[in-house]
Design a protein that fits this description.
Blueprint: H1 3-19, H2 25-37, E1 65-70, E2 75-81, E3 88-89, E4 103-105, E5 110-113, E6 127-129, E7 134-137, E8 151-153, E9 158-159, E10 175-177, E11 184-186, E12 199-201, E13 206-208, E14 223-226, E15 247-251, E16 271-275, E17 280-281, E18 295-297, E19 302-306, E20 318-320, E21 325-330, E22 338-340, E23 345-349, E24 355-356
Parallel strand pairs: 2-4, 3-5, 4-6, 5-7, 6-8, 7-9, 8-10, 10-12, 11-13, 12-14, 14-15, 15-16, 16-18, 17-19, 18-20, 19-21, 20-22, 21-23
Antiparallel strand pairs: 1-2, 23-24
Amino acid sequence: MSSLCICFLVLCLLKIAAAQPLTDSTEVDALNKIIDYWNLRSNLNLTMDPCTQNAPWAQDQANPKVACVCSTTVCHIAHLKIYALDISGEHPKELFLLKELMDLNLGQNVINGTIPAEIRQLTKMQYLSLGINNFTGRVPPELGSLTNLKSLSFVSNNFNGPLPPQLGNLTSLQQLCIDSSGVNGPIPQELSNLKSLEILWAADNHFTGKLPEFFAHFMNFQVLRLEGTLLEGPIPSNYVALVKLQDLRLGNLRNEDSSLDFVENLTSLSILSLRNCRIAGQLPEKLSSFGNLEILYLGSNNLSGELPPNIMSSSLTALDVSFNSLSGDLRPKRSGLSMNFFGTSINDRTSDGRYVISGTYKSKFRE
């Protein structure tokens, strides 16, 4: 073989090597220790470099999933998913050596203990899912160091104490999902900084104090779920500005009455659930013109007057106005519409010919 051919072959090999850089050795060691700590070797047996292109564990549907970002010289582990594999124990300390992580999903496992303060080292994190585990203790204030976060979830855990005000540092956050997480106390005023927020799931926590007025400044808000808390009304009138809301669910508000005036401009709503929120006054007739509204739950409030005659718009699939001082006649019930008007004085003229006075009949209602 001529020297020219040998040189060409060497150049080709160098190009291939340059095109397939190896994973940072510290991260490889840390990943292997994580795999062994959580007994995942049968699910993720690394027989080659973790960042090898098109490796089976790097595919979108892989679980466990390990995916990387690479420069011309080195690869870093950027995505780690271990979802619903019943891993248990606490966080291994090696997890916090994966400092290039952008996406970590440990949801629906049996991980326990507290979230270590070392979580602050993962500053490139954009998506962090720790939901449906057995975490205890306080939600760590160090989460406020992860200022690149776009999505944070720790639903269904056993935390205690209030939300740390440092979460207000997460100004890029678009989704915050903390239903049934065990947190309590007032919602920190510092969360008013989260003006990029689009989705907030925070139901079934023992939050106290007033329903925050600052939510009205979240102009990208699409979903707000805050049922099952100890929050107090009224519903702030400035919520009228939340014109992008599609799903609004509040419940069990205490102490002060609210009106439905704030919904006047919320024409993007598909779900409006305000059960037991001390809503007083009349049902706005304008609700019948909300073309996207599918579910309207207003049971156990202080509504009065007549049910608007056109309230059952063509888009509506479920209506609950039970236990209110409402009267009037229901239009013939169309197929696919569930209704509950028990505890009212509404007369039901349904499509099967029944005529019911004073709400003594409870229609079949599916939730």
